[in-house]
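protein under study:
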Amino acid sequence: MSGSWLVTGAGGMLGQDLLARLADDGTPAAGPGRADLDITDPAAVRKALAAHRPAVVVNCAAWTAVDDAESEEDQALAVNGTGPRVLAEACRETGAVLLQISTDYVFAGDSTEPYAEGAPVAPRSAYGRTKLAGEQAVLSTLPEHGYVIRTAWLYGAGGANFVRTMIKLEGVKDTLDVVDDQRGQPTWTADLADLLVRLGTAALAGTAPAGIYHGTSGGATTWFGLTREIFRLLGADPERVRPTTSEAFVRPAPRPAYSVLGHDRWTAAGLEPLRDWRRALGDAFPALLAAERP
């Protein structure tokens, strides 16, 4: 692997795992956090790229407060839409590859079969609209060096997430009511980090076509099914987890009922997509448990 990497939003779950993965390879990498680099500031971004001279930039920085975006769409758009455009413009000037992390929320969530990379987008939330703006900015500004990686249902040891919350609740709740009418692909940030490194390496080698890829685990389940698997791994009775519907947890932003993404485009890059979500969760579980129940 040649060249250094710059990871924005490095304090988040994915950013932490990506920096760890690059360190394991001995790849030079800088990881400015939110306080260190404002990705909406063109001068600051150009200065960062001039200082670090990265061959690959991975934008993990994002407004991820999905519900808050409904009432603060302009602020969310600045981070999720303007920020990626600013990064893309700076990468165009330096020749760096840009990997932009995006989301399943760009789709309507009403499909019955996995969304292909080129499926029509139709976001139903402010968050989805702002992330789509970021995608479009990267792809239009960097047609040859811009990569969009859509992911979903992320969990990891480095931050708050659904899996860690369920581990915590198992210890204090007799039963849990969990939504069973939203279907998706639980994805371990360490697995996604590895895939991003492989994609960035292939991009530098000229073997991975620019464009859209889907970075989610194989298989699919519901939040209810995921929680039952978490209980099983904890040695707890899965029958303590009871199914319910989205109506029981009404939120400002609509949640996609179907977030299963297809992975066909990895073949064009000569790369293997992520493994089945159950295998990944089993491997991730010791670190998740240690993080939540130290």
Observations:
- The radius of gyration is 19 Å.
- The longest strand covers residues 97-103.
- Residues 90 and 112 are 39 Å apart (CA to CA).
